[in-house]
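Notes, Module 5: Reading structure tokens.

Key idea: the token line is not a picture. It is a compressed description, and you learn to read it the same way you learned to read a sequence, by spotting repeated patterns. We will look at two proteins. The first is printed below with its tokens.
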Amino acid sequence: MTEVEHVDVLIIGAGLSGIGAAHHLQEAFPGKTYRILEARDAIGGTWDLFRYPGVRSDSDMHTLGYRFRPWGQAKAIADGASILRYIRDTAAEAGADRHIRFGHRVVSAEWSSEEARWTVEAVHDGAPVRLTCGFLYSCSGYYRYDAGHMPEFPGVERFGGTVVHPQHWPEDLDYTGKKVVVIGSGATAVTLVPAMAEQAEHVTMLQRSPTYIMALPAEDPIANRLRRLIGSRRAYPIVRWKNVVVITLLYRLSRRRPRLVKSVIRKGLLRRLPPGYDVDTHFTPRYQPWDQRMCFVPDGDLFRAIRRGRASVVTDRITEFTRTGLRLESGAELDADVVVTATGLRLLAFGGVRLAVDGREVRLPETMTYKGMMLSGVPNFVFTIGYTNASWTLKADLVSEYVVRLLRHLDAHGYDQCVPRNDDPTVTPRPLLDFQSGYVLRSVDEFPKAGSRAPWRLGMSYAHDLITFRYRAIDDGALRFSRRPAASTAGRRAG
């Protein structure tokens, strides 16, 4: 009989969050054992999955980068290959890559209070694999990796060209000199359009409704100057905090004075788009700034492609595909050789892993998130969900730091288990992701709930979360600690 491997901590996912978690863990606890289970065959998660033209960060790398490893390149808005290399170099330097088991897709995890451990089931090469751990740490994000969102388009089967979703970009797709239609208006679409426009005959961004789009410098002049003056390691925290403050102020100003922010965005668009361009139709959303995530384009590359006539924007709805392109509700037709369906992502909580506690299935919509990183009634389990209004890694780093503090607390007091309990009937449930993007609205009911107040809210303020995660007491009354029954009994007998 094959012996089941046991580790102190099991991390699910070898992407940006998982590699960061591994670094924090082994820095704090060189004596603890850990493994990373990765469903795919490579490090990088999202940044290894997406291969479409121009793929890049939509956050600056001084905040998307790890707190503990400065981003040293000149470009602050980085391409996907550079980000992937950064993650892999981080894993190699820390030795975390030696702890990864690739091709291991976790399907279920069951907690036993009697044994104070998780039994985790994974699939590798079609065969089941079992591990046990004392602490389970999900860093799988919330995107579904095997399929993106693809609406049903009438007549798509009779289209004579190529239809491709950005999540499954074919390596051999040649669009040189061809007419391309990109369906969508989010971060993926505004990245694809200028990138494809460099080789295509023309690229049309077809959107049902506009998105807020702002231009940012691809390089941060303050960061680059500070790096030259005082070096990367000393400059990094200064630039990181500068960018945190800027994005926080923009977000808060957007929520409190949306008309002012809309006016600023509009003036920027008028400066960058051709004279007389219909900004109201194509770049003025119906919603308020930051009801959905704002798109940032480095050096205004999207607007530059429009000015040069290499790209255009059409705001309309699709009636059907034709043999040569798309027919729209307005009666207009768009000719296309290639149609890219940048129609969004699909969400999947914890990578679809089924959780159970002492033989009872955990129904996620019936749980409430504690500090946006643990589940009520689920012991020794932590997950990472990043910010929707700032860089993902800002939150991921804080969660990792909190996990270190939590494990130290367990060790110092001889506890085996910690579990959040909500005994306050005045705390009311709310959606975990209070965001109006389509990919969120389609799936949010399948996710755990947030609460109406701390510590059950999912925080969206880095400064507030930094104080909460790094400095406030671990034992706050909502998080309950205990020893497994066998350990308690042994202790009484010894006494």
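Here is the second protein, with the sequence above and the tokens below, as before.
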Amino acid sequence: MNIVDERRLMALNERPYGPGPVLYWMHREHRVNDNWGLLRARELAVDRDVPLAVAYGLAPDYLEAGLRQYAFLLAGLREVEHGLEAIGIPFFLLLGDPAEVIPDLARYLAVGAIITDFDPLRIKRGWLKRIAAEVQIAVEEVDSRNIVPCRAVSEKKEWAARTFRPKIHRLLPEFLTAIPTLKPQTVPWNLDWPANDWSQAMDSLKVSSDVGRLSGPRSGELAAGALLAEFTAERLSGYAVGRNDPNGGATSRLSAHLHFGMLSAQRVALVVIQADAPQEDKDAFLEQLVVRRELAENFCLHEPAYDSAESFPDWARRTLDAHQGDPRPYLYSRDELEQACTHDPLWNAAQREMLATGYMHGYLRMYWAKKILEWSKSPEEAMAVAVRLNDRWELDGRDPNGYAGLAWAIGGVHDRPWPERSVFGTVRSMSFRGARSKFDVQAYIQAFAVLPAPKMTKSFQRQGS
């Protein structure tokens, strides 16, 4: 009996398995434990009585990622290397375009199959397509990111959480189960390979140094596990009420580790379910972790334009177009927004927090994105600027959750029409006054008023000036 549910698997080509070793190409799930792709690769290696190897192709640049994101990634991958070494599985760190270096390695090692991670983003789909077409062996994708595999929940783009929720809840009992432990290699790996050069890996990057390294949070599986334990013991109780208060500290702070695949969402759900906390808090957290997060995966898989205004639903595009000519009291350039130089002290504080820490509270992310719409010449410009800033500065940027969240905030994706107002039309708006009614805005502004932000290089424009 297979230990990995076949609904997690997808063949990316029609090539046969060859006689050689199994190669697990890790590109999204950067962990040894709770990794269905790695479990599938080992299962196949055991069945075929061949050794297993793991490889990672380090692209020299990736969307807007900078040194802070790459440093976090590489620290986690070094932990993966040590974890695999302890159970006899070699880890190959390759430098260059993954769509080129992975096939080259597969040929050099004469592997018989490539097992890899599911990812709905265009750049990853492109890598997968190129590799599957080039190699002469089977390439298989495994969904380890979602508790319920993305394709198993729905074969179409879902329009709202209300349409998605019953579908995923119906399947949850089948997939929210115990995860097997990865066992040691059974057939020894005997081929010599140079030790991975982690310094050379950092030197190979072609990214801006403007987005510098962070002093925290700690990277890797061990740190993620400790953070999960801390959250469930100290902050899960009260989550339902406190999660929208940026001052309250009720959030899990797990988003970076989940984004980088250093922590399994399935493991998080299992731990939360068993935690000593009120059921309403568990339910509120699981709604975000399971329904909302996996709805974002569905959105990016089935919407090719997930990171642009083309992804907005028809009703939102019509209303935003109808209000295109509305007066905008403030218009800010991308540089002014990036440098937190607006008239709004709450928005500036949120931007400064992101610049300094790579993190922004979920409630403020919504406010932040909606204000970018209000202060931009068009929804298209607003979406482009928000995506760039989010991907450039957030540790968890370049993620389906982020793209779906921005499309919700700016273009009404997964939402419904609201009372009409200037600029937004019937897209839901948020205001400074509304924020003040939900949490202590002045306390948050004060907390992040002194964080360093780059100097303003351009003055803002008022419309008509």
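Summary for the second protein:
- The chain has a mean pLDDT of 95.
- The domain at 309-447 is CATH 1.10.579.10 (DNA Cyclobutane Dipyrimidine Photolyase, subunit A; domain 3).
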